[in-house]
Write a structure and sequence with these properties.
With 285 residues, the chain is mostly beta strands. The chain is built from four helices and 16 strands. A six-stranded mixed beta sheet has the order 2-1-4-9-6-7. A five-stranded mixed beta sheet has the order 3-11-10-5-8. Strands 12-13-14-15-16 form a five-stranded antiparallel beta sheet, with no helix packed on it. The structure holds copper (II) ion. The site of copper (II) ion has 6 residues, from loops.
Length: 285
């Protein structure tokens, strides 16, 4: 695709189109309110309404998935064996780390599937954010009440504190990436590889330091980050420096004063915290 700017049209004229039908341009949605979470919650609540169009009435409309219908029957072969896999979408809003079932991709890389089976995949969002979940290499049926006309998709938005169920036929081979399409979430750990069992037999998982590390690329290791804030004033300086990864925080904080104090005063704190899960941590400092 080239990146040339779209052709200029006269004021009010519609841009070029491939179809000769009456156009129904969507209005521009208002900018999101970045300072409150209500919009996320409203969307989740509107979705519980009986009216499938309810979420379209919000200032920033959601994905009206219940209105989506395939143009033909998308049912999967009834004779194939079926298996249900439930994955919880997990994370920690304050530390901003994300995972499936409380484990990052580096901690638990694979979901093993078998060619010829139908996977019913239940995605349960335990967090207060939307996660658009994407599976490579397969189209899945989004099961939201449309039966044989369930739409085929490869990405599904899962609103906060709700669940979505999709199903697909495992009709490929080898390894397929599965991840949140907010790429920062993916990189912090909300990803897996759907691995066909045959691949598992020919190249079983190795310790993360071995050849396995290469096949998972940058996802073989948890990412770590350094962040901090500091101020320097005429009378004092204070600041904070943190190194973190999904399980650990190492923090250094300081306060130094030198004006209107008898001698220079200072305080330095060092703190180490290990997170077993978002609700349980151990610390020393
Ligand atoms: Cu996400």
């Amino acid at each position: 695709m080239n990146s040339a700017p779209p052709p200029k049209t006269a004021a009010g004229a519609s841009p070029p189109s491939l179809v000769k039908a009456k156009k129904h341009p969507a209005s521009d949605p208002p900018k999101p309110n970045l300072y409150q979470m209500d919009e996320m919650l409203n969307l989740a609540l509107e979705e519980k309404e009986d009216d499938p169009r309810a979420s379209l009435n919000l200032p920033r409309p959601g994905s009206p998935y219940r209105l989506l219908k395939a143009v033909k029957d998308t049912s999967l072969p009834a004779k194939l064996p079926r298996r249900k896999i439930t994955l919880h979408l997990t994370g920690d809003m304050s530390r901003y780390v994300w995972s499936f079932d409380g484990k990052t991709m580096a901690e638990q890389p694979y979901v093993i599937i078998k060619k010829g089976e139908i996977i019913e995949l239940e995605l349960v969002n335990d967090t207060m954010m939307h996660h658009p979940i994407h599976l490579h290499g397969h189209f899945f049926r989004l099961l939201m009440g449309n039966g044989s006309r369930s739409p085929l998709k490869h990405t599904v938005d899962v609103p906060p504190m709700t669940k979505r169920t999709v199903e697909f036929e495992a009709n490929e081979a080898r390894d397929w990436m599965f991840h949140c399409h907010i790429l920062y979430h993916m990189m912090s750990g909300m990803a897996r590889v759907f691995r066909y069992e045959d691949e598992e037999k020919t190249s079983p998982p190795q310790p993360l330091a071995g050849p396995h590390a290469t096949s998972l690329g940058e996802h073989a290791h948890d990412m770590s980050y350094i962040w901090g804030a500091a101020s320097l004033q005429s009378n004092m300086s204070e600041g904070l420096l943190t190194w973190m990864n999904p399980r650990n925080d190492l923090q250094l904080a300081w306060e130094v004063g030198w004006q209107d104090v008898e001698d220079s005063q200072y305080e330095i704190d060092a703190l180490y915290q290990h997170y077993f899960n978002p609700n349980f941590q151990a610390f020393a400092g």
